[in-house]
Amino acid sequence: MSVPVAAALAMGAGGCGASEGDDKTVTVLAAASLTESFTTLARAYEKVHPGTHVEVSFAASSTIVTQLSHDAPADVVALADTEAPKKLPKDLAEGKAWTPFATNRLEIVTPRGNPAHVTGLADLAKVDTVLCAKEVPCGRAAHKALTKAKVAPHVVSYEKDVKATLAKVVAGDAEAALVYATDASSARSKVSGVEVPTASNVTTTLPITAWSDTADAKGFAQFVRGDEGRRVLQGNGFGLPG
C-alpha cells in the first residue's frame, strides 16, 4: 500500500491525480502516525467510490515536506503537526488550505512488563531512551514535554519517525521511548504504556489539505474530516480538534 518516493516520482509531473482511464488513483502522503487510520480510511473510501484506488505513502512529516519540495506527486497531504507545513517552500504552500482534523498526545512506552520500572518522564534521565529525531513532529513534541518537565533524557538514539522509535522498544533495543499515544495503543500487545501527566504533555494538531485540484482529492480530504473519518480516527486513539 505504501508508495515509495521513486515510484511516485516515476508517475511524472502530470501524474498527480487520476489516471486517464475509468479507474482513478488518489495519491495520499500521510504522516507515519496515521498508518492504521489512513489504511482503513483508504479502503473505506474505495468502497463508496467504485473505480477509485487510494494509494497512501506513510513517512515522517519532514520527509513528506522534502518529497513535495522535489515535486513528488500528491493529491492529498496529511501531516503530524501544524509546524510541518511551514517548512514548505512559499511557492508550493501558496493557495493550500490546511484544515485541522485530529489531535494527538504523548505517551511513554517500555518493553512489555516495564522491566526498568519507568513511572514518568523523570525516569527517562536514567534509562536507555529513544526519541524521534528533533526535526520531525514527534521529536518536537517530545522536546517540549521534556523541557516542561525539566528532564534531560538519556538518549541512545534518535529515529526518523514515530514508528521507527516505537520499533526500537518493541525490539528490546531501548528501555523506554516517548511516542504518540495512538502508536502506543496500536502496539499494546507488544509494549507497556506509562501516561505522561497533562502538565507536561503536549497536544499536537494534525492538518490535511487537498494538494491537487481534483474532485477525488477534495473528496478524500473531506471524507477524512467527515463522520467516517472521525469514527476511525477516534477508534485509533486520536482526539478531534475543537
Could you explain how this protein is built, in words?
It is a single chain. The protein has 242 residues and is α/β, with parallel strands linked by helices. The protein has 2 domains: 5-103 and 206-235, 3-Layer(aba) Sandwich (D-Maltodextrin-Binding Protein, domain 2), CATH 3.40.190.10; 106-195, 3-Layer(aba) Sandwich (D-Maltodextrin-Binding Protein, domain 2), CATH 3.40.190. It is 33% helix and 24% strand. It contains 9 helices and 10 strands. It has helices at 5-9, 35-48, 61-69, 90-93, 137-149, 162-170, 181-186, 215-225, 227-235, and strands at residues 24-31, 52-59, 76-78, 99-104, 106-111, 129-132, 155-159, 176-180, 191-195, 204-210. The strands form 2 sheets. It has a 5-stranded mixed sheet. It has a 5-stranded mixed sheet with strand order 7-6-8-5-9, with helices on both faces. β6, α5 and β7 (155-159) form a beta-alpha-beta unit. α2 runs antiparallel to α9. The longest helix is centred in the first third of the chain and has 14 residues, at 35-48. The chain is globular. The protein starts with a helix and ends in a 7-residue tail after the last helix. The model is unreliable at 1-21 (pLDDT under 50). Keywords: Metal-binding, Molybdenum, Signal. Molybdate binds at residues 33, 61, 162, 180. One of its GO terms (molecular function) is molybdate ion binding. It comes from Dermacoccus abyssi. InterPro entries: ModA, ModA/WtpA.
